[in-house]
Design brief:
three-stranded mixed β-sheet, mainly beta, 13-stranded mixed β-sheet, Phage protein D, 3 helices, 319 residues, Phage tail protein beta-alpha-beta fold, Phage tail proteins - horseshoe like beta roll fold
């Protein structure tokens, strides 16, 4: 097992020479991907001190692998350094960290997710590019005493879009769920899965009713429902928008909560490499009916003296 952790701060690079554990959490359902590096608080009775090297805002790259064959698992920024229970933790976030700064108050009308996101980039960091193919329209969108993070969080909560950053290419992505394809990976219960908690569920067995509520510019409440009447109720309150866009959001919410697929996760190792948005080709010789291609929703990667492990969660069945 090999690892390489590099920090960049004030024009200089630093390598971390010891760790106790690394945990990296990535998900298309979360706005931010995180990494937590745990270190012993003291080595040879000497307290570790990063005051003059690593601090909030330092860039970080984490590479993990075997036999010096390393893959970049995380890149981002140091959010905080804490001491707790005889250990020291370095808390890191992806490029969303850069967007935790205040933006100008604004009342945008009419507007769209693409225009709102681009305004954040223009104010915070123009080196980022925007990739948005899920452009929900707003009759009015208000920003008041908010950070870029607050605005993106509101957009994600209201539209259920996948909003995430590609730190390496400096791209802010906004897509409808399950459409963005990051790569492919192959899993077999008999070959490269340590254990599984997967259970196959069918959409026909789960009844869901989705309601979208919006208040138009005149203060009138609009409502749109879809799904199965009397099923599990999901209600989303969104900003002022057209009925067409309300229907688009309802369709996304219904798909996220009612689909044929495997519910649960698998425990694997660092190889094969996988990220959220990957298409996972899954097979099980004992249960051939579970064979299929599944969308990877999230991964939690841990690395320590006990080994490297990756917990992979599947979502909708793609084929």
């Amino acid at each position: 097992m090999d690892w390489n952790i590099t920090f960049k701060s004030k024009g200089r690079s630093y390598k971390l020479m010891l760790i106790s554990e690394i945990e990296i959490t990535e998900s298309v359902e979360n706005l931010v991907d995180t990494a937590v590096i745990t270190l012993p608080e003291a080595v040879l009775n000497k307290v570790l001190d990063f005051e003059n090297t690593i601090s909030r805002g330092s860039e970080i790259i984490i590479e993990l692998g075997y036999d010096n064959d390393l893959r970049k698992e995380f890149s981002g920024y140091v959010k905080d350094i804490t001491t707790n229970d005889s250990s020291l933790k370095i808390l890191c976030e992806d490029s969303l960290f850069l967007f935790r700064v205040g933006v100008k108050d604004a009342e945008m009308k009419p507007t769209s997710m693409k225009k709102i996101a681009q305004s954040l980039i223009d104010q915070i960091d123009k080196s980022f590019k925007l990739s948005c193919d899920f452009d929900i329209g707003y009759e009015k969108f208000t920003i008041h005493q908010a950070t870029g993070y607050d605005v993106l969080k509101k957009l994600q909560e209201e539209t259920k879009a996948n909003i995430y950053f590609d730190a390496e290419k400096k791209v802010l992505h906004i897509h409808a769920p399950y459409l963005e394809k990051g790569g492919e990976v192959v899993y077999s219960m008999q070959k490269n899965i340590e254990k599984s908690s997967l259970e196959y569920k069918r959409a026909i067995d789960k009844k869901v009713e989705v309601t979208i509520e919006s208040i138009d510019l005149k203060g009138k409440v609009r409502s749109y429902k879809t799904g199965t009447t009397g099923g599990d109720k999901i209600t989303l309150k969104v900003g002022s928008m057209s009925e067409i866009d309300m229907k688009r959001i309802a369709a996304v919410a219904l798909q996220q909560n009612n689909y044929d697929g495997l519910d649960g996760s698998i425990d694997t190792w660092l190889i094969p490499f996988v990220k959220p948005t990957y298409s996972a080709y899954f097979s099980d010789e004992d249960y051939p009916e579970k064979k299929g291609i599944y969308y990877v929703i999230s991964t939690v990667t841990t690395f320590s003296d006990a080994g490297g492990k990756r917990v992979v969660k599947f979502g909708i069945k793609l084929g």
